[in-house]
Amino acid sequence: MENSGEKMVDVRSVVEAISTDNENAPLYQVESLCMRCTQNGTTRFLFTEIPHFRMILLSAFECSHCGERNNEVQFAGELQPRGCFYSLHFSAGDQKMLNRQVVKSESATVKIPELDFEIPPEAQRGSLSTVEGILTKAGDDLQALQEERKKVDSQTAEAIDQFLLKLKACATGESSFTFNLDDPAGNSFIENPFAPSPDPSLTIKFYKRSPEQQAALGYLVDPSQLGESCDEESIEEIKNPSDQMKGEPHGSIGAAAGHRAIAQVNSAEIAENLFRYSTPEEVMTFPSTCGECAERCETRMFVTNIPYFQEVIVMASSCDDCGYRNSELKPGGRIPDKGKKITVCVKNVNDLSRDVIKSDTAGVRIPELELELASGTLGGVVTTVEGLITKICENLERVHGFTFGDSLGDSKRSKWQDFRVRLNKLLSLKEPWTLIIDDALANSFVAPTTDDIKDDHQLTFEEYERSWEQNEELGLNDMDTSSADAAYNTTDGS
Hints:
Blueprint: E1 6-8, H1 11-18, E2 27-33, E3 40-49, E4 55-62, E5 69-75, E6 83-90, E7 101-104, E8 109-112, E9 117-119, E10 127-130, H2 131-143, H3 146-152, H4 154-171, E11 177-183, E12 189-190, E13 202-207, H5 211-216, H6 223-226, H7 232-238, E14 246-249, H8 255-265, H9 268-274, E15 282-289, E16 296-305, E17 311-318, E18 325-331, E19 339-346, H10 349-352, E20 355-358, E21 362-366, E22 371-373, E23 381-384, H11 385-399, H12 410-425, E24 433-439, E25 445-446, E26 459-464, H13 468-473, H14 482-493
Parallel strand pairs: 1-2
Antiparallel strand pairs: 2-3, 3-4, 4-5, 6-11, 6-13, 7-10, 7-12, 8-9, 8-11, 14-15, 15-16, 16-17, 17-18, 19-24, 19-26, 20-23, 20-25, 21-22, 21-24
């Protein structure tokens, strides 16, 4: 049972070892209590990385006295900016889909709507398994206490027996069902064997976490957002005058540095670039929580107007404790009546340098590669055409974590390698290609390369009427503004 690469250490040494950035961390063993026989067993820790996915901590317990064994996976990296929701529809008789690999983090919930069945986060803490494995383990956990239930409540035990038959039918592929995986931390994953092409059976959505979900993940949340009472200390902390929103002159943050840069190089071109967009007189500053270390930090916000586009809100956060920085751009003004599709024909280096604003409701498509990314895949980004392609490549490698693993077949590996070569060739401009950004809320933008946008013949904008399904996904069908409209009409009339 002992191995030359393993050594018995205390828990503190293990924590210190896995907290380092050493990629070649050894396998550690810790003596720990067995919860079945109360004897001492052995827990093994391994800090490793799933290729192109996440850094994880694998732990496996084994008791030599009673044979008890279990394992767990915990994520060693950061929480993702948004939560993720995977929905996989299974058809009866499709056995291959049951073998899809699943990463379920300790904050993820699994639901099967057809059975009205839910596996809460604490039931199967961080696991690396398959769809069949997760359902089988859930059935085994329910079956474990059936004998005791029959003695205490035979009616409930009988109902559970009937449910176990339905669950087994799903786990063996005899019944069709929907497998939903919801993770507020954004660290869960379901394999897509058709990647990089879309999977018709798999739906992926990214969403903004609620205040309750933020608090459950350890973020600092204003108690008033949770609707719960809090102690006096936390109230005083929130009401601290130094933490309230305040305004700062815009020149003290960005414009003054811009003037110095212009003075040093004396370049009219730099001046034109710096003042390309109109800037406000004031930047608002308010407290927030760092996305890396969860410490209190500061977020700056100001409103600016982008020519040929619309008014936007720029937000930037920086943390003095860990050095984390983040910037985000949000649309301002009302919701447009129509969606917008932007088409760019990329032919030269100037096209790769075009400024791109992609909102979190926009999808990206490249017909030459038969590549299509659903809305929300990359979130909201401000970049260039070249930067967008680079982000797409990095995102595909990160999301499809099992694609380049050792278990991948030669044919699929060759397919992926060929696709990555074709994706990288886009930046070499050996052949012209087309970038299409489709935004149902018309909050995306690609800058022209000419002074007048009408003279840029490689850039086209097309407005379209949103479908009912698009409005439903955006929550517009249930939006009622009649009260606000009546109030505005009354004010105008007076």
